[in-house]
Amino acid sequence: MLIGFNLATIGMAALLDAEIWLGGAWLAACAYAQGQRLLSDYVQPVGPRHNWNAPQGASSVLMLNAPRHSDHHARPTRQHPGLTLTHSTMPMLPQSLPFMTAIAPVPALWHCIMDPRAHQWQPKRPIQPPDPAMRRRA
Question: Per-domain residue ranges for the chain?
Answer without folding.
Answer: 2-113
